[in-house]
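FAQ: What does a multi-protein file look like?

Like this. Sequence, then tokens, then the next protein.
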Amino acid sequence: MIETGLHVIYNTSSRLHYAVDVQESYAGIAVFAPCDAGEGVRDGVGVVTWANLAAELATPYDYADGAGFVDLHGNGIFVPDLPGCPHGGIYKGRSYVFPDGMRGHDEITDHALIDIMTDNAGFPQPWRNRFAQSAREKVDLSFRHRARTQASNALVIFMPIKGPLSSARIEILCDQDPILLNGTTVAGRIDDATIPNDGQWFKQFYFHAVATETLTVLAGGRAHVPIALRWNGDGAPCAHALALKLDSDAGYLPKRRLTTDANGVGNFVIEALGLSPGDRIAVKINTEHYTAIGKIILEVV
């Protein structure tokens, strides 16, 4: 299993400050640009106290069936007594995600990685499942993903299994502790300098599929291939009923869909039609949006 709850990734050199609201049924952030002395009165479009703004932020912004529209009402207002900012900050708006997602859409699925990002001007963006994109746009490396979108990550939800946010790991990337709304608590704090700089931090929180025995298939014959889901972090069983897609580079798959049972176990059939001893069959196992959570090699004998 993965660690759940809100984790603060600090020492990120982020120029923005956040108020974070993480509950069972939603997660969201309000974004602020910290001010230097005298900037807020000069650059703000108005002034509001933190107490008044906090009262408004206590109610999440759920517009158009949780589709992810950003709430920019009041952006540009100066908050002189913003917690964590000695000279106050400029409010930039807020963005939320709801686990039930957008009606009629399938972005929130098993093996989802949800980002709420900020653009180059510091405004929050609508949430997105990084993996629910076309094959051309899918990018594993996190820094490459941010470079291509020309945005910076603020809130990241690791959701290997679709469900309530209590079963997900959530990270807020910031330079100082965020403001916590509605009783939000922090489960852990991690120095960004200790995170491996390979852009694949997310993978340890997900799962993969493996064959549970060494397999061969007779040339022209058929074999049943048992598989099981394992957590990437520690290799422990991932007990979850999951719909998978199958693809092979040789042989024949009578069925290209597989659903594991509640224990994360299943099997599929492969036929070595037209193959000879010494050939190999590679079967790639995919989720709804993410390709290659497993690759199984079968020897033809």
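And here is the next protein:
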Amino acid sequence: MESSAYLYDQIRIMIIKMIENGEFREGEKIPSELELGELFGASRITIRRAVKELADEGVLRIVRGKGTFVEKAKRPVRILNLEEGFTDGLQIGNHQVTKVILEKKIITANKSLAKLFGQEGAMEVLKLVRIIREGDRPISVDYAFLPISIYPDIENLVADNVSTFRLINQHFGIKFKKAKKEVEIVHPNDEVAKHMNVSPLDQVVQIRKIIWDESRPVHFSQYYLRTDGIKLSIDIDVDSNKLESVEIPNVDIWG
């Protein structure tokens, strides 16, 4: 290889291309510094710098005593996009993401949930619990609640891999005007941990979301994301978004 003051950067780019071409695959161990030096015709110092740069970028993961591995790509999730649901806002690349219904039933909302939707008395909502998987790996579980008074017969329309956001917009003609999301790192309860195949001692991202149309709340959900393999991103258009201080009340979705 041609000598250069930026030889480590050339090697860094070539390793990235080898990952993109499938020569080094996600989760697999790459050759040692000595082997990479022979492959690229470079010193171990140069190889070590290229590998460190890639580790700092999150492309590689150095495990002391075991070697260097290709890091699993993190899937960006746009958490402040008003027009999209979770899987609509998930950039999946070449990976197959599926959305499977675990529970779908009409329930009588408890007091806290009814109050969120502006009702003092009894009201019926659709409780929709879905698991989102990347291949066979669960990455999220979503608990959504939709008022039957706004969405009659919606329980017969939702199905696996169907976007409820598109269904709400296109079938029911509801236009979203405002949303509030709260993000918190929590320990999952036993049910969430089981669905996501994690330990109750692990930490997950909890996102509570309420959406309004012109005048009323029309959607509430509480969903959980694994902290590994997910990168949260925020898109803000300062010209079209009015920032307001809106608190999401405490809602007991387990009651």
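Q: Is there any per-entry metadata?
A: Some entries carry free-text notes. For the entry above: Confidence is low (pLDDT under 50) at residues 1-5, 86-94.
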